[in-house]
Amino acid sequence: MKRLKFLSLAFIALIAANGFTSCDTTEGYTIGDIYPTALVTVKPVDANSCYLQLDNTTTLRPVNLNGSPYGTAPVRALINYLETSDDPAPYTRAVRVVWMDEILTKQPVQHGNLTQEYLGDDPLEIVKDWVTLVEDGYLTLRFRTLSSGLGTTHLMNLVTGVNPENPYEVRLRHNAGEDTTGNMVDGLVAFDLSSLPQSDDPNQKLKLVWMSFSGEKSVEFPLYGDSSSSNESVQVATSAIKME
Asked: Which of 53, 71, 134, 186 qualifies as a cystine partner to 41, CB 3.0-4.6 A?
């Protein structure tokens, strides 16, 4: 069972949670190294190697990683890295990973394949942020919702096929498992969009619909967006809330 990643505004939460994969390195680090510098897709090649997709065109060779720490499936992750002078071939750049933290990465579900009761429709808000985007074939979202912090399992699903007239309209469904009181917390989740129809339109938009605390909302993302690095100070911690 995977844990839902939450963003924390407190530096101490990051240190106490220790929710990221630390990588061996000989470099010295500063306080800035606790912040993520990019959002990537970790793509395994075989048991002993992987590479990182930084954006739609840039790939990173992680010189201090022997295979993906997350298994055989691609996952989205926040990372902090340093560029090195190593040979990047066959990728674009060579980097040394300081730390890396997996984001829960899921496949969408087809409309009608799961019950409405299971999917739920508990409210949440989508946060406008550098990690909220469509990139490298994934929809990554920073969201905000209520939680008591008592370890209740929250379910997050992206449902496709909700609009017969628009295959690029999807709905985010949230089942809070009756954990609907407490404090507002932020989380990260990513969905693989490869099951959507391929489009030749460079301006194609993905329409996301969800139930917010003030009613139904929607937003459109460029389906072929391209921006994954940031200088913003986003601090990452894990929460007791779990995601199946």
From this structure: 53
Helix/strand/coil (H/E/C) assignment for every residue in 176-244: CCCCCCCEEEEEEEEEECCCCCCCCCCCCEEEEEEEECCEEEEEEEECCCCCCECCCCCCEEEEEEEEC
How far apart, in Å, are the Cα atoms of 226 and each of 4, 85, 125, 138, 244?
A: 25, 25, 23, 11, 29
pLDDT tens for residues 181-226?
999 999 999 999 999 999 999 999 999 999 999 999 999 999 987 6
pTM of the full predicted structure? 0.85
Which residue shows structure tokens 């691609």?
74
As beta bridge partners, residue 7 has 186, 236
